[in-house]
Predict the structure.
Amino acid sequence: MTWDDWIPVVLAAGRSERMGAPKLALRHGGASVLARTIGAVQRLTGRTPLVVTPAGGPVWAEAAAAGVVAALNPAPERGLAGSLAIGAQAGGRRGLLVFLGDQPLVSARAVAAVLAEAERWPTAELVAPQFRGGVPGHPVYVARRLLAGVGQLEGDRGARALARNLPPELACCVAVDEPAPPDLDTPADWAQFQQQHGEPHAPGAGANI
């Protein structure tokens, strides 16, 4: 097994309850949130990610339009844990590099730091970034050994929950001296994103979706 035996995975099956619309299908500058996230992951890792989406609907359509392989989550109500379990079944003999679909501004510095640490420390089961102010974030590298326990998770508990009982030599955080990339969870988050990057519109039925 070589260091190259990992794949990037984008978790994109959330129900967008706080946004009130499928947030990953919201459009900005002619591209959806999910398309921007996929593009960033491809650019920063040099690999095409597996994308975990709901079965059908606008988010699945965005993944299909981006030309990526979509792993379907038939039960998005299970939360992040269910999507991570589906991603874990898909491949990556050594592990996964896990991204969130609603973070199109994924940090290039965090990607580089996590990958470098995981390659330097082959026994690590989890490597995660810690942004300025001690804020945890993504992407998170999760070794195949740790993914074996993903079925124990429920709701929006992710890989960090699996790592809580690991000894320090098997899990680490890498410091990234910049603010954590924003999540796009609410209409206020989306409005702020639009204001900072142009094309201000509110989420809802119409041109944004």
Observations:
- The longest helix spans residues 33-45.
